[in-house]
Model the fold of this input.
Amino acid sequence: MFKVQGLKPLHGKIKVQGAKNAVLPMMAVSLLTEGRTEIRNVPRISDVFLMAEILRDLGCQVMFQDDVLEIDASGLSGTVISEKTVGKMRSSSLLLGPLLSRAGEVTTWYPGGCVIGKRPIDFHLDVLRAMGAEILDDGGMLIAKAKKLCGTTFRFPYPSVGATENALMAAALASGTTKLLNCAREPEIVELCSFLRSMGAKISGERTGTITVDGVEKLFPTDHVTAGDRICAGTYLAAAAAAGGEIEITGVDPVVLVEPLKALRKMGAGIRISGATGPKARIGMVMERRPAGVEIDTGPYPGFPTDLQSVFLAVEAAGSGESRFKETVYEARFEAAMRLAAFGADVSLHKDTAIIRGRYPLVPGIAETPDLRGGAALLVAALAADGLSVISDSGHLKRGYEDIGRDLRKLGADIEEDEL
Done:
């Protein structure tokens, strides 16, 4: 449970954690090789701990100290993923491709995680079937087998990040060449391809939406430094936009934040990029006024990320004009928008579109976290509320943020967390 005393401008510098959405597929990829794989700059979040638990259940050795994760999959002995663990984390579906490729079979269940829509894994299953896998759906239990995955040409009906990742992992050791069309182009896809190449995979085209993978006989252990978390960085920039003040973000490449930074500039924020390109760059932001109204449509990268929709919507709830947000990725991602009513926000929903009429200050509210990014949105709203707000069920936030309360306190927020 978080207790937030609002109307405290944010000031200071913060280095963002490693990217959650990059680390999880790399953990899955470790199953494709025997030996010790080392991943650094790994965030200490519950999703990483859960994936580590799954890997241990499968017979892998997993060591996690500070921000260094070591995985040795030499002793892989299991192919059944616990239903209890799967129910907690959607990213467990990323193990389908690697286990089919390495062990020839896998038994799992439809995944869980945040409740932000249907989020089917049909595309994951379709591309694996196209590569020769036989998959049986037995009342929610998935039983998949493949003697040897084979290269294929497959067009995704939608550029799904998870399905693209699964296909890449399956194709790396498949027989022949796989050509994937209409792929996701998110930075995490680019990083996964780089990670696979460092293991000996032959992959090209990941920035174009058409990826070619020439299967190899064997992959080798590697080491890798994870990129900074662009969604985490966007969350802290949004927090400063709502609370006002001046902050500096390091540890993330500004190139992966083009659309969020563009939106912040339209709101009236001053953005300054300095230093070298890449993760050594510094993103400075100053907000000296109430955020102006904006129009945002979410979409696959390089569009505006759906994971930042709710937090930016919370900023505009405390803004000075009217804003329109159109959600094109997940049909149920406005749960947080509805809960902003507890803070006096003026939000109306029309199918896939939210209309927000900014008002400041917001009123202190009591609300329950609906999901990972929705929880961050409620914290952002609380920073712009005149009084003490209480946000319960902080467990969702621990899935993606190492310690969001700690980080916001570093920037001057008056926030406390009580363990219930």
